[in-house]
Specification:
Number of domains: 1
Radius of gyration: 19 Å
Number of helices: 3
CATH architecture: Alpha-Beta Complex
Shape: globular
Order of helices and strands: EEHHEEEEHEE
Helix content: 25-40%
Strand order of the largest sheet: 5-6-7-8
CATH topology: Lambda Exonuclease, Chain A
Strand content: 25-35%
CATH class: Alpha Beta
Number of strands: 8
Oligomer: single chain
């Protein structure tokens, strides 16, 4: 997140006081807005109640239309003390900078947020969108990897 400020009134025109409004520009805001918009389009069309894989397939179609460089269900190995203990998959790594993780559950839970944050750190990505198609209204959360410095 990048903090920017705009001075609306200068000391000369407001009696020596400066009024500053601070607003935030999120990292990759333009891209995440497009993905959220595509997700809303899918949710409006299908509604809730389908399995996650159906929404994955639809989002894959929309990401292709938007021209993004992405993979679907990219697998990552998991090590414990340098011993391979398994693998995990992330739904959509996009542009090698952020990921999109989908859910189809009635409500996003803290465990879903923890999973997305874990994926961000494991894949060494900067931003995640956690999108839930299972609720009556589309739910989404934008997460940022606090350990990753933007490229």
């Amino acid at each position: 997140m990048i903090k920017r400020g705009a001075v609306l009134k200068t000391p000369e025109n407001c009696g020596g006081l400066a009024l500053v409004i601070v607003f935030y520009v999120y990292l990759y805001a333009d891209v995440t807005e497009k993905i959220i918009g595509a997700s809303m389009k899918i949710h409006r069309y299908l509604g809730n109640g389908f399995h996650e894989v159906i929404y994955q397939r639809c989002l894959e179609i929309e990401l292709k239309k938007l021209g993004f460089n992405f993979e679907r269900e990219k697998e990552q190995t998991v090590f414990y003390e340098e011993v391979l203990v398994g693998t995990k998959r992330v739904d959509f790594p996009v542009e090698e900078k952020f990921l999109v993780e989908l859910k189809a559950t009635t409500q996003l839970e803290n465990v879903h947020l923890a999973q997305a944050i874990n994926y961000l750190e494991a894949f060494e990505l900067e931003v995640a969108l956690l999108i839930n198609f299972g609720a009556t209204s589309l739910q989404y959360r934008r997460l940022q990897n606090k350990y990753r410095v933007p490229k």
